[in-house]
Design goal:
Helix content: 25-40%
Shape: globular
Structural class: alpha/beta
Oligomer: single chain
Strand order of the largest sheet: 6-5-4-7-8-11-10
Distance between the termini: 41 Å
Number of helices: 7
C-alpha cells in the first residue's frame, strides 16, 4: 500500500494503511483522522474527471428535474432560517444543474453557482437564467462587482464537493476568503464513520475513487474547518452516512 508524506488536511504525518482494493488505497492520518486516497489525483486527472464529470449529466442526473428542484427548495428554506442576512448573496459551489441556486433566488437571494462541469453549467444557464453561473474551479473563482471590487457572499452552500478535492485546506481557505464577515457555510460530505455505513467499504456508494479522494469523520472535518478560521454553529442530524455542518465566519477574523 502507498504511504503519503503529508496529510492533505492537517499536513501532519505519519499515516497508516486504512483500506486497499483494486479501486485504490486509502491511508488514515494519525494526526487528524482524515482518510485519503494515496496517491491523490493530480491536476490533469482532476480536469478529466470533471468534464461532464458525472458520466452524462443530462441523461442521468437530470431525469427528474422537478423532484430535484423541490428538494433544493426544502433545503433552501432550512438554510434561510440560519441566515443573518436573508436577502444577501448566495453561492453554490458545485452547483451542477443549478437547482440550489434557483431555489435560493426564489427565496430572495442574489444567487451564483459554479461548477467545473460545462455540461451541467450550460443546463443551469439555459433553465435558470436569472442566476449567475460560471464554469470554473473554486480555486479560480474571483467575482467582481460593478465597481470592480471583490464580491463577498453571505451564504455559501457546498454539498458533496469537498470529498472530490485533493487540497481540502486550500479549498476551505478559499471559501473563507469568499465569505462576508458573519457569513455562513452549509457544508456536507459523506461520513466514513457513520453507523449506517456498510462494514465492507467497497459496498458503500460513497466509496468512489479517484472521484472521491477524501473521506471525513465529523471530527476530522470540524477540526479542519476550525483550523481554517471557521466557527462551528451546529452539526445537523444525518440519518444516512453523511456530515452536515453549519459553519460561520466570525465578524472579525
Amino acid at each position: 500500500m502507498n504511504a503519503s508524506l503529508e496529510c492533505p488536511g492537517c499536513r501532519q504525518s505519519p499515516s497508516r494503511p486504512y483500506f486497499s482494493n483494486a479501486q485504490g488505497d486509502l491511508n488514515e492520518c494519525l494526526g487528524c483522522g482524515l482518510i485519503y486516497l494515496c496517491p491523490l489525483p493530480g491536476p490533469d486527472e482532476m480536469t478529466r474527471l470533471y468534464t461532464d464529470g458525472y458520466s452524462g449529466t443530462v441523461n442521468v442526473y437530470l431525469k427528474k428535474p422537478e423532484k430535484k428542484l423541490r428538494r433544493a427548495r426544502q433545503r433552501a428554506r432550512i438554510i434561510a432560517g440560519f441566515a443573518r442576512r436573508p436577502l444577501g448573496r448566495f453561492l453554490d459551489i458545485g452547483c451542477n444543474a443549478g437547482f440550489m441556486a434557483e431555489a435560493a433566488r426564489e427565496r430572495g437571494f442574489k444567487a451564483w453557482g459554479i461548477d467545473p462541469d460545462p455540461v451541467a453549467v450550460n443546463y443551469a444557464r439555459s433553465h435558470y437564467p436569472d442566476n449567475e453561473f460560471t464554469t470554473t474551479r473554486l480555486e479560480d473563482f474571483a467575482p467582481l462587482d460593478a465597481g470592480g471590487q471583490p464580491v463577498r457572499f453571505d451564504i455559501i452552500y457546498c454539498s458533496e464537493v469537498i470529498e472530490h478535492t485533493p487540497t481540502p485546506r486550500e479549498f476551505l481557505t478559499k471559501i473563507f476568503q469568499l465569505m462576508a464577515p458573519g457569513g455562513m457555510l452549509y457544508l456536507t460530505t459523506p461520513d466514513i464513520s457513520h453507523w449506517r455505513r456498510p462494514r465492507d467499504l467497497a459496498r458503500w456508494d460513497a466509496f468512489n475513487p479517484p472521484s472521491h479522494c477524501l473521506y471525513f469523520t465529523p471530527g476530522s472535518l470540524i477540526g479542519l474547518a476550525q483550523s481554517c478560521g471557521f466557527r462551528l454553529h451546529s452539526k445537523r442530524l444525518a440519518l444516512k452516512p453523511g456530515i452536515k455542518l453549519v459553519l460561520l465566519k466570525p465578524l472579525q477574523s
